Penicillin-binding protein 4 (Jeotgalibacillus alimentarius), 616 residues
Amino acid sequence: MRMTIGFTGILLLLPLCIYLWVGMDQEMKTQAAFQEAVSDKVDVNNIEKNETSFILDKDGNRFAQGSSGVRLYATDEEIPQFLKDVTVYSEDQNFYDHIGFDAGAIIRAVVKNLVFTHIQQGGSTITQQLARNLYLSQDKTYNRKMTELFYANELEKKMSKDEILSAYLNIIYYSNGVYGIKGAAMYYFNKDLTELTKAEMAFLAAIPNNPSKYDPFSNFDQAKERQERLFDILVLENMMNAEEAEALKAETITLHQYENKDLYPDYAVYAEYELKQLIAEQEGFKDRLDRAEKSSVKEQIYQELNQRTNEVLGSGVMIHTALDPSLQQKTVDALNRNLPYEGVEGAAVLINNSSREIVGLSGGKNYQKYNFNRAYQAVRQPGSAIKPLLVYAPYIETFQPFLTQTVNGGSLCIQNYCPENYGGVEYGDVSLSRAFLLSLNTPAVRLLNETGIENSFKYLNAFEFSNLQPGDQTLAAATGGFTYGMSPLELTDAYTSFIDGSYKPARAIRMVTDTSGNVLYQWEDKQIPVWSEQTTVKMRELLNTAAVSGTGSPAYLNKPYIGIKTGTTNEWADYWTVGLTDQYTAGVWVGHDLPESMLSIETNRPAHLIWKDMMR
């Protein structure tokens, strides 16, 4: 009987044993696969050394950050030993003994958390915090905490304790957008790590435990209290004697906040945009975009480019620009001063003729960083400001007429297109010079028609207007009729071809270097001929005549040379003033973000006044 019961029990337990064995085997395989995945992901050779990038003016002075927050990387040798010690005793007293996690601390945390309905205390070691910041989210869930243990243990296998501590000190958050101890030293004390006193080191070491609670600016007293507790711990651990601790507690902590300079946000935002263009050109993204036919493929390339740009900005580069602080301020002030009208916006660009560099740029009234930057993002109809580039210069280049040659200024209809001169006024035969001076429309259309639309548009290819469409090649383009148009920067840049007949894209960035001064990126633009010497001389004469006694005269200044062309679009939706002096080329656009009539301020000539104030 007993044997029968035994066999029966074995038979009944056998399926359960098989089930448990299979389950354990699957769990072990799953666990092994997970551990292998963690091991593959933890690549200690590619731990990001994020640093803040800075944008520098023409003299090498920092005027803006090229990335959010403050991040500076410190080598292990740069970090004082006392700072390492006090950090360990602040965050993880068993750091040098555990294997990535502290079982005792975890048990204490679990017991405490049982009292609450959500996780209050994590019991995280320095290694766990490093793992979380490198590979995981900040969510307070038990699943994330368990995963964190595996990553921490893997870090311990692949890195020494000193390497882990150094990486931690470079990545941990110190409140107020500051990451890493080197950035914290600069941000709170305006000092290098080697210049910190022990009291200051302990004060900074107090922050990461709870960056909000120990924020030095909003909760200074609490941060100071924690700093003093750290000294008490060091005394208990025989790391210093009581007398030294009391002396350090008594040392006055004086904050000297780092001045986060964003003096010229209009220019800084454009410099970041140009950096993306520079990376795209030099790392092959532009070629890939040019070859891509599907929009989905282009979108993927754009995402890769954005990611790459963010990587560069997060690597601590120095973006050297041509910004001239005095000219930038003059440009911004000129625009703000002359646009007191509700809802009326503007943009202005200033380019140095000798270097073909952008030295000043305004993206709108009272521009705030990362807002819509109208200088390069607003694409608008150019009105008559396109005539020098599309009509007169191609016509002169093709036929080399005298400027006294006449053209019919009367009414005109070609294939149901019937343009009119401003105010509907009709003229008889007028000289090229007078037609340009008065910015007459019907002569411009006749000249474009005679030169040939296709031939004239070929000259625009040099300027790479990014929004030109095949459908733009009509006679209406002679008076500024485009599908989209061009940005103030693009149009102003094209006018630099009237400096000497050649064109090279105007750039803000001179070069991009790493912190050691090694050049990483630099434009390799070549100056290309666009207009012959004879055409350039005649175009400069036409522009000068318009500045002296034509539509540009309200912006006239007494300069060795001055040439101006203006533009007004249908229903007075856009005002343009573009031109050059012997030193600079400048362009101004005025309008609403959503086009509407500005007839009421036409006689005030806002675009003229901005241009004149910029170029004084």
User: Anything to note?
Assistant: The CA atoms of residues 112 and 528 lie 73 Å apart. The longest helix spans residues 2-41. The first strand starts at residue 54 and ends at 56. Residues 1-42 form one domain.
